[in-house]
Each structure stands twice: as structure tokens, then as C-alpha cells.
Design a protein that fits this description.
The protein is mainly β. The chain has a single domain (2-88), classed as Sandwich (Immunoglobulin-like), CATH 2.60.40. It has strands at 2-7, 11-14, 18-19, 25-26, 29-36, 42-46, 52-56, 60-69, 78-88. A hairpin with a 5-residue loop joins strand 6 and strand 7. The N and C termini lie far apart (60 Å).
């Protein structure tokens, strides 16, 4: 499982691809469903047209998952993909110095 680290306030795009047991591109039956294990850390929005956005909303960790039906027939065989997401605080990038006259 892959681990990704981003900062609070980052907005990510996400995609998934599927492969068969030989590593060749494969299709799934129906749409992929995206989810997050903790919406307080990161939210997932899927517009239904393959455009998935993940918003990093608070410091913490969660898992982003995809759920799809790998059985191309009338049955269902769930195929789950997982990625760990770590959301960290934004780092300081500048110092603002204020000088004032003492009384």
C-alpha cells in the first residue's frame, strides 16, 4: 500500500487504474466508489465522470479507498484499492519581523 504525505489545505486529484494478474490493463464492471476512513482529516469528492478530488482538511492520517466489481459477469467480486494519506501542518516559509519604538 502506498503512503502519501500532504499539508492541510492541499487539494489533490486522484485516479485509479486496474491490472490483471499479468500486469496488463484491465477493466472493472461499473463505476469505482471512492471513500475515506476519516472525513475529519480528508474528504473525497467524485463527480461521477472520473474526476476525483481529495481535500486535506486537518492534521492526521486516514486511508483513501476504491471499491470496484472485478467480476465482469452477473456476479460481484469486490476489488479494493487502498492508499495511506498523512496530512501534516503547513511549514513556516517566511519570518515577519516587526520593529517598534520603545516607550
Amino acid at each position: 500500500m502506498a503512503t502519501f504525505t500532504f499539508a492541510v489545505g492541499d487539494t489533490l486529484t486522484a485516479s485509479v487504474s486496474y491490472v490483471d494478474d499479468l500486469g496488463n490493463a484491465a477493466v472493472v464492471d461499473g463505476p469505482t466508489v471512492w471513500s475515506t476512513s476519516d472525513a475529519a482529516v480528508a474528504t473525497v469528492a467524485d463527480d461521477g465522470a472520473g474526476n476525483v478530488t481529495i481535500s486535506c482538511v486537518a492534521v492526521g492520517a486516514c486511508q483513501i479507498a476504491t471499491h470496484a466489481d472485478a467480476d465482469l459477469g452477473s456476479g460481484v467480486r469486490e476489488l479494493v484499492g487502498m492508499a495511506d494519506l498523512v496530512v501534516v501542518a503547513r511549514e513556516a516559509v517566511a519570518a515577519n519581523i516587526v520593529l517598534s519604538k520603545a516607550a
